[in-house]
Design goal:
279 residues; alpha/beta; Metallo-beta-lactamase, Chain A; 6-stranded mixed β-sheet; 7 helices; 15 strands
Length: 279
């Protein structure tokens, strides 16, 4: 059975959210949803997430999962709000979120009451774990490197890769966050390149040139043939050297602090935190 995918672009953060569903049963998953956030006023709103709910209801889908590919540092997740709108949907993320929580709980001084066991999420997925979306098999592929908690979801012939891969002309995700590692990311991408060339790759971000349309999907074959930073012939040594040079030039994401404060809590503000700015 071939999964069907609808993709929604959040222009302020250049983020793609995908709704993937099984046409036989209507069972659906929302991958990497975005909560609108105005940093000037620290104001959160749900316009973009409401579009997802409208799509689900218009097409009579039954959302089973809200899936995160990792704890994003460049946008706030709408997972908690969507979970409440689409009950009994569950929120899942990779088991590596535990180490991310432990690190940032200290950075943000969340205090002893903050849980760093991942229990804010309904499910912590491990490498090669499988589950079903209706009649379609889902396989979890651990893809750390950009972050230590990165995972990809292989749903039928579709793989949702988070920030591990961008479109071929965009390259790959940065590897300078805490717990990130360029060599680890190289091996993660090599795992993805073992999938059939026809596998559809759904991206979490695209940064189009002015007046160009953003790219939501590509294929494993296209990435292997033409990814400008890591193609089928790129060596690990060459990639690591490139990634380190490149990452040294990058500024911190604009929404890093508010994003991580919310995202390590599955979309909820941690107890005792009243502001989304950095400490």
């Amino acid at each position: 059975m071939t999964a069907q995918v609808a993709s929604f672009f959040h222009a302020p953060t250049c983020t793609w959210t995908h709704i993937v569903h099984d046409p036989a049963t209507g069972a659906a998953a929302i991958v990497d949803p975005v909560l609108d956030f105005d940093p000037a006023f620290e104001r959160v709103s749900t316009e973009s997430a409401q579009v997802l709910v409208e799509h689900v209801r218009t097409h009579a889908l039954r959302v089973v999962w809200i899936l995160e590919t990792h704890a994003h540092a460049d946008h706030l997740t709408a997972a908690d709000w969507l979970k409440r709108q689409l009950a009994p949907a569950r929120v899942g993320i990779g088991a590596g979120i535990v180490s991310v929580q432990k690190h940032f709980a200290e950075v943000f001084a969340f205090g002893a009451d903050f849980r760093t066991d991942g229990s804010q999420f309904d499910r912590l997925f491990t490498d090669d774990e499988t589950f079903a979306l209706g009649e379609i098999d889902v396989r979890v592929i651990a893809t750390p490197g950009h972050t230590s908690d990165g995972i990809s979801y292989l749903i039928g012939d579709c793989v949702f890769v988070g920030d591990t891969l961008f479109a071929p002309d965009g390259g790959t995700g940065r590897c300078d966050f805490p717990g990130a590692d360029a060599a680890t990311q190289y091996r993660s991408i090599r795992r993805l390149y073992e999938l059939p060339d026809a596998t559809r790759v759904f991206l979490c971000h695209d940064y189009p040139a002015a007046h160009a349309e953003p790219t939501a999907q590509t294929t494993i074959g296209a990435e292997k043939a033409g990814n400008v930073q890591l193609n089928a012939t790129t060596s690990e040594e060459g990639y690591v050297a490139f990634r380190r040079r490149r990452d040294a030039t990058l500024a911190a994401p604009r929404l890093l602090c508010p994003s991580l404060k919310v995202n390590i809590c599955a979309g909820r503000l941690p107890a005792g935190s009243h502001q989304l700015t950095c400490p």
